Amino acid sequence: EEEEEGRAYWSRQKLSHVAPVKLALERSSPEPESFESRCLESEIDTTLRAKLEALAENYQTSLPVVLLACWQVLIWRFSNQREVVVETSFDQRKYSELEGALGLYTNYLPLKATFEESFSFIDALRQVNQNFSDADEWQETFYSQLLEEGDARLKERIADSINYQFSQWPAISKQAGVSFSLLSIRDPSEISKLKLSCINRP
Fold first, then answer.
1. CB–CB of 87/157 below 8 Å?
2. What's the rounded Cα separation, in Å, for the pair 10 and 95?
3. Please, which residues have CB within 8 angstroms of residue 131's CB and are 6 or more apart in sequence?
4. Rounded CA gap, 43 and 34, in Å?
5. Is 163 in contact with 88 (CB distance < 8 Å)?
6. For the segment 106-133, what is each residue's pLDDT rounded down to a tens digit?
7. CA 152 to centroid of chain Cα atoms
8. Which candidate among 14, 19, 85, 179 keeps its CA 20 to 30 Å from the CA of 139?
9. d(CA 7, CA 142)
């Protein structure tokens, strides 16, 4: 029964009816074999971060969801497409048995937002927050459904996707007078035409 409810949720999203986002001056999507990523880094100052966290608290959501809402609104404005799908990362370590496991436990789920010109940012934030919560609840049924549809559908999603990821990095570890910290994390198998990757450092 729960499996059927999850499948019904993803079916209601009608993701196959949403046109891929096309950005200004965009070239055709690269083939996976020729894909080469480029990265632009920027740091959010403490003042702006405090405002974002206060916004999340005021509307009973989280910093990752606020940043996702900002990203989807930005893509909407740049593309002028009222329906925007962003492949959003979800941590598969929600089960206690996986908390200490090594390796990648991240899946991407398509989150669709539908915008209207009359929307305020708070309208967009509320919608994105609900979408994020629903997708998190039904993420396992999405992948079981996707596997049934085969590799063709998966490759189609990957080649033309816009992605979002929020990562919580561990604090600096000190052992015997030596400090260890993460500098970067890259997944060479990941392909997308545009991605916002947010890193929360302690």
1. yes
2. 22
3. 111, 112, 113
4. 30
5. yes
6. 788 999 999 999 999 999 999 999 999 9
7. 21
8. 19
9. 7
